[in-house]
């Protein structure tokens, strides 16, 4: 069971999104006005320090500054994406879409995101254990899943 789980903070996620866009721009030879390597990494670390010190009233200012700096990079890439060949344009567009806004906004959105991540992590562990069990008995996952579906269909009550 993994112990050291890094919980995503807004600052760290914003910095990772900026890093991936800057890397995609460098690979495809796009010239950015500024990539904010020094400022964004310092602000991301600062937000982490504020969270660790439980200074939750200071943290939003640092996140706001980071969001305004990081938001300039996708706009700069978006302006230049039309010059790229079709295959490179598709890859950069995919990076832009991945680094877009999270529809789960605010405190409730952060809580839902944490629950979804935890559920997916547990589901991955359960599927890995099930694969190992199937391998021990010489079965495939498809056979087990089909048997489970057939068993649930047979147990459904008939409504009249």
Number of strands: 0
Nearest-integer average pLDDT: 82
Number of helices: 6
Q: Give the termini separation.
A: 47 Å
Helical fraction equals over 70%
Annotate the secondary structure layout.
Blueprint (H helix, E strand, L loop, with lengths): L9 H18 L9 H16 L6 H22 L5 H13 L7 H32 L3 H14 L6
Helix pairs in contact: 1-2, 1-3, 1-4, 2-3
Keywords:
72% helix, mainly alpha, 6 helices, 160 residues
Structure description:
- The chain is mostly helical and 160 residues long.
- The protein has 6 helices and no strands.
- α1 (10-27) packs antiparallel against α2 and α1 packs parallel to α3.
Describe this structure in a few short sentences.
With 160 residues, this protein is mostly helical. Helices cover 72% and strands 0% of the residues.
């Amino acid at each position: 069971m993994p112990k050291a789980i890094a919980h995503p903070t807004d600052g760290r996620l914003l910095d990772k999104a900026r890093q991936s866009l800057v890397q995609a721009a460098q690979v495809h030879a796009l010239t950015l006005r500024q990539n904010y390597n020094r400022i964004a990494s310092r602000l991301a670390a600062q937000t982490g320090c504020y969270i660790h010190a439980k200074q939750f009233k200071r943290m939003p200012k640092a996140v706001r500054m980071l969001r305004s700096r990081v938001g300039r990079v996708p706009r700069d890439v978006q302006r230049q994406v039309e010059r790229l060949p079709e295959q490179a344009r598709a890859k950069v567009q995919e990076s832009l879409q991945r680094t877009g806004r999270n529809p789960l906004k605010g405190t409730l959105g952060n809580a839902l995101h944490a629950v979804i991540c935890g559920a997916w992590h547990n589901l991955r562990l359960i599927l890995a254990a099930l694969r190992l069990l199937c391998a021990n008995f010489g079965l495939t996952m498809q056979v087990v899943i089909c048997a489970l579906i057939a068993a649930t269909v047979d147990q459904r009550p008939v409504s009249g």
